[in-house]
Design brief:
Blueprint: E1 19-20, H1 33-41, H2 49-53, H3 56-59, E2 64-67, H4 69-74, E3 83-88, E4 93-97, H5 98-102, E5 105-110, E6 113-114, E7 122-124, E8 138-143
Antiparallel strand pairs: 1-2, 2-5, 3-4, 3-8, 5-6, 5-7
């Protein structure tokens, strides 16, 4: 990885790339390459448009996920990387493929609040296959 990155989920509530948890795994709301490409050509991160789209009450009532792909790609990852090690707050490690990481979402808000228990983020696979059992307590993502 050319650039290490530090992610701060506490500011993602203002980012237009966020997705409501209840809508994340329906085909019409999963971000596609066109959306990611248009975001990459605009301001980074795209913020404040969502303030118009959502009222404050709505932001405080929903749980939100952030697609992780754009953040990882901005770090200019070495082409040899094949896996991601997810280090959690309970000192466990979960190994997933680099491709799975790129397609994943990080849950950063439950009912409009930062995740305190098992936080700061939960990882959901892009296909939703672990919706009932996300990887909780993600503190560090190491690429190998």
């Amino acid at each position: 990885m050319k650039y290490p990155i530090t992610l701060d989920p506490s500011v993602w509530i203002f980012d237009d790339r966020k997705v409501k948890l209840e809508e994340a795994f329906t085909p019409s709301t999963v971000p596609n390459e066109d959306v990611i490409e248009s975001n990459s050509k605009s301001n980074k991160p795209p913020v404040n448009h969502s303030i118009k789209k959502y009222n404050k009450k709505e932001l405080l009532e929903h749980s939100y996920l952030m697609p992780i792909q754009e953040f990882v790609e901005n770090a200019e990852v070495d082409k040899k990387v094949s896996e991601a090690i997810l280090k959690t707050s309970d000192n466990k490690e979960h190994t997933i493929t680099y491709g799975e990481l790129l397609e994943s979402f990080l849950l950063f808000s439950i009912d409009g609040k930062q995740i305190k228990e098992h936080g700061p983020a939960y990882l959901y696979y892009g296909d939703g296959s672990n919706q009932d059992d996300p990887i909780k307590g993600i503190k560090v993502i190491e690429l190998r």
